[in-house]
Amino acid sequence: MSKNGYLQIHDPLKPKGQAVGIDLGTTNSLVAAVVKDQPVCVPVDEGDALFLPSVVHYAKDGGVVVGARARKLASEHATDTIASVKRFMGRSPDDAETRKLGHYKFAPGAKVVRFDVAGGTPVTPIEVSGEVLRALKRRAEAHFSTKVEQAVITVPAYFDDAQRQATKDAGRLAGLEVLRLLNEPTAAALAYGLDKGSQGTFVVYDLGGGTFDISILKLVDGVFEVKSTGGDSALGGDDFDRAIAQRVLETLGASEAPAPALVAEVLAASRKAKEALTDAASVEFSAGGQTHSVKREDFDAWVQPFVQKTGTVCRRAMKDAGVTAGELDGVILVGGATRVPAVRRYVAELFGREPLGDIDPDQVVALGAAVLANLLTTADRQDDVLLLDVIPLSLGLETMGGIVEKLIQRNSTIPTTAGQVFTTFKDGQTGLDVHVLQGERELVEDNRSLARFTLSGIPPMAAGMARVEVRFQVDADGILSVSAQEQSTGVSQSITVKPSHGLTDEEIEQMLLDSIDYAEDDIQARQVREQRVDAERVLAEADRQLGEHGSLLQEGERATIDSAIARVRELMKGEDHLKLKEAVHALDEASRPFIERVMNQAITQVVAGHSVEDY
Ligand code: ADP
Ligand code: MG
To answer: Care to name a GO molecular-function term for this sequence (predicted)?
Structure first.
C-alpha cells in the first residue's frame, strides 16, 4: 500500500504464459512443459490420461470431438472420424501413400486431401491436426491456469518439406506460435539430457503407431549433431494391429471388402489385444460377435516382417553415419510400439546392447520438446541453444532430360543454403522453368515434386548468356524456400516456394477467419438453445396454471395469454434468441395479473389451514 492510500499496482512485464512442447503423434498426442526445472506431461484426456488419442470426430450438428471419446465413435461413424491424420499431412489425394490409407471419403477434385465428413464443409489434414493441437492447448491452459501460445512441435525426422509446412500451419491454425519444429529423435535425446556432458554416438529407435524413425546422434562437448536419419513414414504399431485384425476378419469369414464399421471394431479390439500381449502370454477378446484368442508366440511371428523391416532401415542409417553397431554408446527407445517384447529383443540383438529405458518411451518426445521450448523462451542468448539437425531428404532441381540435380544432399546440417547457376538454351528466351524436387532418386518421376514455378522477365539475350542463380535456403525447421535471380543484368526476382501439397497463406487466413466466424455461430447457437429451454419452462408453467386455476381468469384475459403463448411457440421454431426472449417476457407480463391471483389464493388457503404441499 502506498502512502496516498492507493493500492500500488505493480506493472508486470507482459505475461508470456506457458511455453510447451507438443508431440503431435500419429496415434497419440502429448503436451509437456518445464515446471520447476523438470519437464512433465500434462493430463489431457479422460481419467487424467497423459495421451490424447489423435482422433477427431465430426458430428452431424457441426460439433467436433477429440481424443478417447472420438476414438470410441470411430466404429459407428467410420468416415466422420479421422484417425492417423498425420499420415495425410502434406499429401495430395492421389499420392500412392494416401490411396493406401483407409476408408475415408475424399472431397473430389481437390489438390490437397479433404475429408468429406459430417457437418458440412470438408476438412483438410491441417485442420484436423489443428483440432488436436487446439485441444492440447486448451487442456494445458486449464492445467496451468495461464495462456499457452508458444510451442515446439515435433515431427518425424523423415518428414519432407510439405509435411513440415503442413504441421506448422496446423499449429498456426490452433493459435500457436510454433517456436520450432523439432525432429522427434532429437527431442528424445534432449529428454535424456544427452546434450549435457555425454559423449559418444547414440541411436534413437522410434516405433510409434504409424511411423518408424531412426536417428544416429553424435555428441561432442555437449553439442549433438544428427549424423544420419532414416525411417519409414508408413510403418508402426498400427501394422501389428492389422496383422491381428486380418486373422480375426478371416475367422469371421468377412468378405473381401468388409464394412468399415466392422473393420474399425476389429482393429480397436486388435490394438487392445496387442497391448495386453506385452504383459501376458496369451489374450482372449471379442470382436464381430465372436471370441478370439491370440498367443504371444503367434503374434511375434505375425509381426516379424514389420520388425525386420526396421532392421533394414537401421543398417542403412548406420552405413550413412559411418558407424557399426559395436561403436555405439547407447540406444534410446521411443514410441509405444517399442513396448512389444519382440521389438525389444530384436533391437537389443541388432545393436548388440540393452537399450536405455528409464524414461517412458511414450512420453520421451514430448518431454524433450518441452525442454527445447523452455530453452528457447528463457535462454538469455539464443545462440546458447545449440542444436544441430540434418535434412532428411536431398533437395534438387530438374535439369534437361528429366534428371535431378541435387543442390543439398540428405543429412546436411541445417540451417543451410545452396545455389546453382542456370542459363537459357534458346535465343531471346525470357522465362525459365524451375522444378524443385525432394528425394534420393536420379529421375524426376521417382522423386517428390515440391514446387514448380517460372522465372519470367529475363531480358531477351542470346542463348547461354543469361545467368540465373537458383538459391535454396533451408531454415531451422527444415523448411525450404527457393529464390531465383538473373545475375548478368542485375535483374532480380525472388520467389518463395510453397509446397504444392500445402495450403496457401490465403487459405490458412480464411480458415482462421472461418473458425472465428464459427465461434460466433457457436455462441449464437448456444444462446438460441438456452432461450428455448427457458421458453419451454415458461410455457409448461403457464399450461399448468391455466389448467389448474382457469376459474381465476378474468374476462378477455385468456385470449391475451393465449396469443402471447402462440407468439412464443412460433418464435421457438426460429433462430432469433432476442425476439424469443422478448416474447417470453411478454408472456410473463400478460399472465402476471392472473398468476398474482393464483398466488393470493394459495396464500389465503395456507392461512386458512392448508399447507402449501397440498398443491
Ligand atoms: P505415435 O508416435 O505414432 O503417436 P505412440 O508412440 O503413442 O505413437 O505409440 C502408439 C503405438 O504404441 C500404438 O500402436 C499403440 O497400440 C502402441 N502401444 C502403446 N502401448 C503399448 C503396449 N503396452 N504394448 C504394445 N504396444 C503399445
Ligand atoms: Mg511418436
So the answer is: ATP hydrolysis activity
